[in-house]
């Protein structure tokens, strides 16, 4: 439950399963440790929540003073003083809460509080001590012990307990369904035996024997709760008697890992005394370890090393050769009978890189790695590899600043990997470029306040300067499986989409032929041996020069060609005029009309002045 106690919860049949039935069940327990006493309180007592809390604290203090031990818990209930699920006839109080006794229930004490206090002890022995102390209480001493009194105007203390009912009762049943059901005659009774009684294993045990009977209709079911279970060994034995409407007997337990109930199921006939019934045993972890790894559990016997190895493999147990062998892992063991280590381990310093950075649970901020080896040169007493000494080694690391010898990092309790050559210790706090001393000790595991370094070897010492830029480790844990390759999405269509090429425009019409020269030139006389070249000769030379000057590839546009031609004509217009002047002065005669020569000569005339007529 919420305070760490455990109970046995039993259900009888399922409601609304279409069948009724009845059951006789005998439950025998040993080692149960509950004790209950009932008190009748005075009329002036007001049972408020504050009063109840103070009362429970007083009861716990009183038990501690009487037995020297604490108790597990206290539960208070009242009204009917019982543990059933129905209300008391004539009482407004619900069952299980402190309430008033009404005239129909107790005509001698109307309107008084009746409370039942149930103490769960740690062991049956403590319960017997509490029982003996309760037998010695009176109304006055109980009022003083539990702080229930009233101080009057005359400063006199009046006891608040009117009556304490004797003897106290030890009853393992916390809840019974339905204890007050008269229609179906549900009932149970309990008998306690002290030493040598029914189900007892020794004269020091406490045993309880309970006979239970239920009858139910198809609408309903029944059940019970036993507990809380003590911290010491106990047993609970079930024996089914007469029954009807039932077919199975189930034993269930809650799994914290699966967060659900798991059941072991058997025919209900196997839970009868003909088959020996059903036995549940409980106890401490030491009881479990002693029972599971006793010599009798191994076929043909076993050596101490065999028992020790099997014991330490169980995470709930440890082997203490000087303290009873296999015991609870939570028990304090001051000495494992192991010699102190005489020789220090071997160490070497690294930085994690690549795949090594993901090994051995390394974390991302590891700046240095200390590799430790328990040297194999140690034999005999120096390095004991027999159980339990081999599982008690712990490594202790201290890192110091080399300049100030101040401690900058420490870790302890690191269990070496005896099945591997090396153990790795990551150091997260070093600064690049700084010098450090690394001290590693091999110690025996201690659980007291001194830590794990009470019995250690000489230290292994290393001096190191942290790298300025240690490579960063890959992410841990590594991705598995590797992620699928990234496939780029298809390229989008070009934007804007390409347009259909438009057809080339039709070529420009050819230029019209040049008009004849105006006025037409007279025929040129035959050249004289001393005359200068004729105009056509001049024009042809200049045309060749123009053609040579513009010998680049022809342009695609007729407009560009026209521009080139214009430039050429403009360049040569002046020489053409000059040539014409020189011919006219010597009386040269113009050549006959030629279309190409006319076009070449006509254009300079448009730019220059009109030539003078020949004489």
Give your account of this protein's structure.
A 5-stranded antiparallel β-sheet has the order 11-12-2-14-17, with no helix packed on it. Strands 3, 4, 5, 6 and 9 form a 5-stranded antiparallel β-sheet that branches. The chain has 8 helices and 26 strands. The radius of gyration is 57 Å and the shape is extended. The protein has helices at residues 49-67, 124-135, 139-145, 285-292, 304-312, 535-549, 558-585, 595-607; strands at residues 8-12, 21-30, 34-41, 73-78, 99-101, 112-120, 149-151, 157-159, 161-169, 173-177, 187-194, 206-216, 222-226, 234-244, 248-255, 260-267, 278-282, 317-320, 325-328, 346-350, 368-373, 393-401, 407-414, 423-427, 435-444, 460-465. By secondary structure, the chain is of the alpha+beta class.
What are the main properties of this structure?
five-stranded antiparallel beta sheet; 615 residues; 8 helices; alpha+beta; 26 strands
In short:
With 615 residues, this protein is of the alpha+beta class. It has eight helices and 26 strands. It is extended and about 175 Å long.
Assign an overall shape: extended
Give Rg in angstroms: 57 Å
The helix content, as a percent range, equals 10-25%
Number of strands: 26
**Low-pLDDT residue intervals, each spanning 5 or more residues:** 79-97, 531-590, 596-602
What percentage of amino acids are in beta strands? Answer: 25-35%
Strands side by side in the biggest sheet? 11-12-2-14-17
Structural class by secondary-structure content: alpha+beta
Give the CA-CA distance, first to last residue. 144 Å
**Largest sheet composition:** 5 strands, antiparallel
Mean pLDDT: 74
Number of helical runs? 8
């Amino acid at each position: 439950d919420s305070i760490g106690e455990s109970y046995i919860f039993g259900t009888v049949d399922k409601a609304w399963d279409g069948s009724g039935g009845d059951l006789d069940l005998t439950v025998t327990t040993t080692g149960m440790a509950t004790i209950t006493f009932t008190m009748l309180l005075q009329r002036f007592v007001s049972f408020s929540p504050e009063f109840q809390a103070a009362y429970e604290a007083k009861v716990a203090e009183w038990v501690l003073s009487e037995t020297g031990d604490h108790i597990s818990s206290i539960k208070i209930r009242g009204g009917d003083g019982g543990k059933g699920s129905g209300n008391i006839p004539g009482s407004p109080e619900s069952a299980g809460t402190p309430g008033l006794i009404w005239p129909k229930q107790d005509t001698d004490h109307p309107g008084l509080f009746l409370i039942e206090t149930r103490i769960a002890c740690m062991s049956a022995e403590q319960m017997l001590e509490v029982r003996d102390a309760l037998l010695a209480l009176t109304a006055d001493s109980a009022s003083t012990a539990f702080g229930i009194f009233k101080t009057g105007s005359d400063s006199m203390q009046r006891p608040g307990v009117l009556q304490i009912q004797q003897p106290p009762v030890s009853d393992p049943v916390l809840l019974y369904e339905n204890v007050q059901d008269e229609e179906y005659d549900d009932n149970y009774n309990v008998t306690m035996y002290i030493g040598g009684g029914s189900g007892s294993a020794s004269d020091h045990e406490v045993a309880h024997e309970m006979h239970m009977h239920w009858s139910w209709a198809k609408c309903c079911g029944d059940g019970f709760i036993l507990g809380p279970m003590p911290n010491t060994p106990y047993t609970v034995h079930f024996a089914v008697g007469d029954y009807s409407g039932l077919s199975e007997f189930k034993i269930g337990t809650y799994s914290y890992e699966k967060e659900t109930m798991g059941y072991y199921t058997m025919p209900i006939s196997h839970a009868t005394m003909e088959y020996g019934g059903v036995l549940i045993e409980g106890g401490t972890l030491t009881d479990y370890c002693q029972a599971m790894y006793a010599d009798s559990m191994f076929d043909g016997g076993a050596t101490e090393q065999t028992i020790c190895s099997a014991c330490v493999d169980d995470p709930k147990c440890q082997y203490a050769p000087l303290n009873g062998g296999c015991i609870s892992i939570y028990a304090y063991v001051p000495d494992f009978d192991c010699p102190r280590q005489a020789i220090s381990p071997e160490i070497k310093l690294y930085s994690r890189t690549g795949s090594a950075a993901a090994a051995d649970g390394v974390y991302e901020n590891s700046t240095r790695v200390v590799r430790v080896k328990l040297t194999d040169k140690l034999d005999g007493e120096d390095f004991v590899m027999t159980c339990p000494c081999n599982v008690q080694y712990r490594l202790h690391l201290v890192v110091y600043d080399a300049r100030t010898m101040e401690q900058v990092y420490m870790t302890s309790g690191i269990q070496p990997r005896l099945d591997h050559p090396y153990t790795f210790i990551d150091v997260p706090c070093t600064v690049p470029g700084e010098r450090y001393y690394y001290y590693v000790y091999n110690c025996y595991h201690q659980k007291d306040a001194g830590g794990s370094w009470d019995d250690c070897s000489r230290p292994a010492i290393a001096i190191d300067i942290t790298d300025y830029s240690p490579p960063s480790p890959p992410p841990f844990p590594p991705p598995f499986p590797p992620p699928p390759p990234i496939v780029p999405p298809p390229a989008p269509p070009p934007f804007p989409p390409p347009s259909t090429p438009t057809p080339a425009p039709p070529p420009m019409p050819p230029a019209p032929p040049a008009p004849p020269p105006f006025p037409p030139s007279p025929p040129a006389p035959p050249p004289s041996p001393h005359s200068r070249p004729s105009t056509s000769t001049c024009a042809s030379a200049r045309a060749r020069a123009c053609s040579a000057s513009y010998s680049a590839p022809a342009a695609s546009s007729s407009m560009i060609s026209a521009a080139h031609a214009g430039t050429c004509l403009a360049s040569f217009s002046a020489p053409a005029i000059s040539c014409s002047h020189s011919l006219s002065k010597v009386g040269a005669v113009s050549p006959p009309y030629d279309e190409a020569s006319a076009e070449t000569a006509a254009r300079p005339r448009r730019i220059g002045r009109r030539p003078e007529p020949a004489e």
